[in-house]
Automatic annotation (TrEMBL):
Gene Ontology biological-process entries: RNA modification
Gene Ontology MF terms: RNA binding
Signal peptide start and end residues: none
The protein, known as: Pentatricopeptide repeat-containing protein
Gene3D superfamilies: Tetratricopeptide repeat domain
Database matches in InterPro entries: PPR_At4g14850-like_plant (IPR046960), PPR_rpt (IPR002885), TPR-like_helical_dom_sf (IPR011990)
Organism: Rotaria magnacalcarata
Length: 602
């Protein structure tokens, strides 16, 4: 074994190693250091002392915790005690016991005890302590699948996916559960593609791996994800279909990837349907804008749970009809009182009542509720905005003690609709008071920019926009719309040219700006841009309308007519754009042609 020799530097300053060795002797840490040196080599002695320093920072009684105690507990009892505390979610106490009885003997602790302390670290998100333990036990546990799995879980739970992946890669014997932990972590971190890549490495995936694959594909919502779901569902053992969780996640993936027919076929041939399966189907119908099907399926459920109720209310909120409102009221009277303890249910019920136009009923329910949560306030505020009761939205916001980013976003939306000096003052005041973390929410930033623009403070909006590091397309849209509303079309065009991959809304706003300018340069830009537009954008009827309007106002009636008559999907606003242009140029002989097209189509 190497001997550690510490020497004084020529200028008589202590070398780093000397400082730590003297400190170790003073605090009685040498037992632990000697154990560490025997196991890992003297070259890591300084790292050990630095590690011990960090550990001491957490301990209430540092000298006691790092000395060998005369009454050291048996390692089996230590692991058992920590497990009992972990099971009771008393993770801090579990770590305290480890600090008192385990840290100085960590090299001889059972793997059972190690897994328990790592579980506590994971739940406390104490990644620094977890890393220290990992470093101390690395050589002994690299081939132990249970400790390796727990370490991976600890890193994933603490959000350190890079360390978790590195550990998985270095593990010789990889188990399906290890892959499952990693896949779940990637899904949680919105990295579904990485979860799918990991799945492809598993030789014999189990049903949990399959569930996680379907969850990842549901997150992606792409054609490729749908193809993978279908392919995998054909290859899995039939026995897996007896797992209702697997079926539920499969239905959810099919629905979220847009294959409603396949999901329906699978659902109706399934013999044992459970409530989460009904929920996956109802959620899929709502997401695919098929609210009537969601309601029909709800009526097939004998004893719906609170989640099924929530989805019913969401479907009714989508319909916004008198019949939907009647169903909401009828159902709300029949649901068990215990369901109202679910804040999501109350929120969805308030949202449905508001969207179906029954503000009074929503208010009565809201104010009679004892346990109001922020999402309930949000549903009420959004309802007030949708029903053009903007002052009520602002008054309700002022009742909230600690509003979240969603509440603030809705407040800005209300102020944007008011367009008054008082509204602008409130926007500025609120924007100064909100936590900085809220500015990482692009929805909030977009609504703030929109409010500033609509209230006439373009300079403030510009300052905020250009100081923002992470700009998203809706933020560009809010600025462009503001410039159009404030009659600054040149600024719209300049900002559009800064966008790498504009979406259909950005295109619409560009055409609106060009329509305002009515110049040859504007017409040339409209023509150039219209040739570059992806064909899929034309499915947005507002884009065709704004393009026709721009062509007409810039004087190219012939091109507008050609585009109009070649378009398969005409909407009323498209006819309106054409007729408005005809009226603008006093070419009334064209009215009959457009009018006849209108009557043929409708």
């Amino acid at each position: 074994m190497k001997t550690v020799i510490f020497k004084f530097q020529p200028d008589f300053h202590l070398a780093t190693g000397d400082i730590y060795q003297i400190e170790a002797k003073q605090h009685g840490w040498m037992n632990g250091c000697n154990i560490f040196t025997r196991r890992f080599g003297s070259q890591d002695f300084i790292s050990y002392i630095m590690t011990t320093r960090l550990l001491n920072h957490w301990l209430s009684f540092p000298k006691i915790s790092l000395k060998r105690l005369n009454n050291t507990k048996s390692y089996i009892n230590l692991g058992t005690e920590m497990k009992l505390l972990n099971d009771k979610k008393q993770f801090e106490k579990a770590l305290a016991i480890f600090d008192q009885h385990g840290i100085n003997n960590i090299t001889t602790l059972s793997n059972f005890a190690i897994t328990e302390v790592l579980k506590a670290c994971a739940h406390m998100r104490d990644i620094q302590r977890g890393k220290i333990i990992h470093n101390l036990i690395a050589s002994e546990t690299k081939n132990d699948i249970y400790v390796s799995s727990t370490l991976i879980h600890m890193y994933v739970h603490c959000g350190d996916m890079a360390s978790a992946q590195s550990l998985l890669d270095s593990t010789k014997t990889k188990t399906p559960s290890m892959y499952g932990i990693m896949m779940k972590g990637y899904i949680k971190n919105k990295q579904a593609n990485k979860a799918n890549d990991l799945f492809n490495e598993i030789e014999n995936p189990n049903d949990v791996n399959m569930i996680l694959l379907f969850n990842a594909c549901a997150q992606l919502k792409t054609k490729e994800a749908l193809d993978l779901v279908k392919k995998t569902s054909k290859e899995i053992p039939k026995s897996f279909y007896s797992n209702p969780r697997l079926l539920t996640s499969l239905l959810d993936a099919l629905m979220k990837c847009g294959d409603v027919a396949h999901a329906e076929s699978l659902f109706y041939i399934s013999k044992q349907k459970v409530l989460p399966m009904y929920g996956a189907m109802m959620k899929g119908y709502v997401d695919n804008n098929l609210p009537e099907k969601a309601i029909d399926l709800f009526n097939e459920i004998e004893n719906p749970n609170d989640v099924n109720m929530i989805l019913l209310f969401n479907a009714c909120a989508q319909l916004k009809t008198k019949e939907a409102l009647d169903l909401v009221k009828k159902t709300s009277k029949q649901i068990p009182k215990s369901f109202y303890s679910n804040p999501h249910l109350l929120t969805s019920l308030l949202d449905a009542l508001m969207k179906c136009g029954d503000v009074a009923h929503a208010e009565s329910l809201f104010y009679s509720s004892k346990h109001k949560v922020l999402s309930s306030y949000g549903a009420m505020m959004k309802g007030y905005v949708d029903n053009n009761l903007l002052e009520k939205a602002i008054d309700l916001f002022n009742e909230i003690e600690n509003p979240n980013d969603a509440n603030v976003t809705i407040l800005f939306n209300a102020c944007a609709q008011l367009k008054t000096k008082e509204a602008l003052d409130l926007v500025k005041k609120t924007s100064k008071e909100i936590p900085k973390s809220f500015y990482s929410n692009p929805h909030l930033l977009t609504s703030l920019l929109d409010a500033l623009m609509k209230c006439g403070d373009a300079a403030h909006a510009e300052s905020l926009f250009y100081s923002s590091k992470h700009k998203v397309l809706p933020m560009y849209g809010a600025m462009m719309k503001g410039y159009v509303d404030n009659n600054l079309p040149e600024k719209v065009i300049n900002l559009f040219n800064e966008i790498e991959n504009p979406n259909d809304v950005n295109m619409i706003l560009l055409f609106n700006a060009c329509a305002q300018l009515k110049t040859k340069e504007a017409l040339d830009l409209v023509k150039k841009t219209s040739k570059e537009i992806p064909k899929s954008f034309y499915s947005n009827p507002h884009l065709l309308t704004s393009l026709l309007d721009a062509l007409m106002k810039c004087g190219d009636v012939a091109l507008a007519e050609s585009l109009f008559y070649s378009s398969k999907h005409k909407v009323l606003s498209s006819y309106g754009a054409m007729m408005k242009g005809i009226n603008y140029f006093n070419i009334y002989d064209k009215v009959e042609s457009v009018g006849s097209q209108l009557f043929i189509s409708f």
